[in-house]
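Q: Structure tokens for this one, please.
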Amino acid sequence: MSLDALTVTGRGTTDAPWLVALDIDGTTMHEDGTISERVLDQVRRLDAAGHEVMLATGRSAATTLPVLDRLEIAPRFVVCSNGAITLHRDPDSPTGYRREWVETFDPTEVLLSIKSHLTTARYAVEDEHGYYRYTEPFPDATIGLDSEHVDFDDLLRHAATRVVVISPDHDMDDFLRVVDRMGLNRVSYAIGWTAWLDIAPDGVNKATAMERVRAEIGIPRHRVMAVGDGRNDIELLQWAAVHGRGVAMGQAPDEVIAAAGETTGAVQDDGLAFVLSSL
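A: Here is the predicted structure, written as tokens:
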């Protein structure tokens, strides 16, 4: 698909800053971990122009901050762990950021419920300090190095900001049916591209975190843009689209595209660079 044929509409302005929230994987970053020069140029252009360009991701803080270094930006806030952890820029912190808002929950009930349905799944739990405990190996981009292998019962002993479940034995359709039968209550959850389940505290998602950031910064709702490609971006895109711009990547699932007000090109076509160029 050519970029000229896409449904992005430019409603940007040069006389007032925008708050721009970017998902990482499948939006800013390609599947192979690269970030294109076109995306880098557009992110840096907006940052230099005074727009507040930040990341809103399901990744842990430890695996998000290196992406900021690659983008060469240092936003005031960074939303991690699907909204459960929001970082605030702090030059006195060893990483340059401190944890500003942290949401936790007791993962015991939900973990036991999922285990009864997905007996061969892999589990990881992130605590309020960003430390991960996992039952089987996970992709490094998910949990980072600050983690340890534990038995399943050890996962029940710590308050969680995020629970991640991978079930390699299920294809996506089968996995969706199993998740539907679980009837998960009092937690927020998002399903990834593969048989992957992200669970956050009740009522917590990227949108709730971004609204708190927006209010803190003082940017009006009509000057927010969010760009994403995954099911964990649905609330974020809906939030942005109400008064501003919610933009789905071209390769996103149908329900993600339906949640957004606009669609840009796929990540392999540098769709993010194209929509950022409209600001």
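A few notes: Residues 1-14 have pLDDT under 50 and may be disordered. The CA atoms of residues 60 and 130 lie 7 Å apart.
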